[in-house]
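Follow-up to my earlier ticket, as requested here are the two runs.
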Amino acid sequence: MGIREISISGHKLTIHELEDVCDSATGRVLTGSWLWDSSLLLSQWMATRAEDIRGKSVIELGAGTGLPGLTAAMLGAGRVVLDGRGGAAAGLERNVEVNGLGERVEVREVVWGSEEEGEFDIVWCGSEVRQWTYECLGQLVSEGFGVVELPSPVGVSDGSWDLFSIFHLIPPIEGCHVGEYLVLEGPGDA
């Protein structure tokens, strides 16, 4: 762990990974303390969709080190909220500051569905596809979310996308049950 320099679409972002942030109940290092491959791939994918991000309001739930949220701000998002729960807030604030994105990026703990959460234009999820990924997404659908698997970038031939997917999450809307559909390509459905 330490400091990582990440290049996204020709721009450099500095990410501080943390070594000393532990769960107070278990004593284990928090998984959000380091940069995950899924956040790198999601950020690279986002760079191919910059026109969809400019001027938008973006939230990164369970932000960890905040790379996708910082990428959104770097690409021109008007407002970004990084969910800094479980001790991750201090590291997120450091990453926002070192990248000079404090005017557009806010770090706070977000409670989904609360009045203070606010409205967001973009909710994407990047995940390594594991056996429980589709079970988790199915749970979101049962709670009223719509979930749409988005296409992986064209021309990526290094195999990094073979086990990775990006999903558009559509939050429940009062009086409208969008969670009646789940559009996914499961393993082997490509």
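Run two:
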Amino acid sequence: MQAQVLITPIVQVLNFQLPSHLQKRNVPFLTRDLMISFICKYLDIDLSWKDVMLTGACVSLNAWKKYKKWVSSDNIPQKFRSKSFQPKLGPFNEAAYLETKHILDEKISPLLADDKIIAQLPQAFLVSCENDPLCNDTLLYKKHLEDQGVPVTWYHVEDGFHGCMVLFDKQPFSFPCSRNILNAIINYMKSISS
């Protein structure tokens, strides 16, 4: 049996105006600034483009229209959005687009993959954490998978945060959420192998 298990994944680097990116911008271990710095370094994007990427100004209006059905905050349940949530997209910056256009590649942003590709993926176990800037990325990926008929098991950790999983055996820094995530993954793997 094949399955994909994704723990607090980053599945798109197009929309940093999602509610969790804005509302959880200063949580410990993965602040928004640290996250965008890691992304820029990983994708070999000059750090001078960070602010342009955060406002979405490096994405053309045509690209926003094309990918809206997958990256729009409208696809996120109201429970995960505050009433005061207001995304603020910046004006298109062509120079930034030319430097960062590879963020639209589905190998970098798998959420942007065509529906036909998504429909061929194996069942998924997705973990999201309440105190994680990437929480909404997981919810968007979940919706894209489900919309294409891919079975999804979703485990949301109310007291979890990005990176908590790596602390599951690091006493005294282990948190109950770490062990809970590990147990949920083990139980899922057992359930699909039997």
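The only thing I checked on run two: The longest strand covers residues 152-161. Let me know what else you need.
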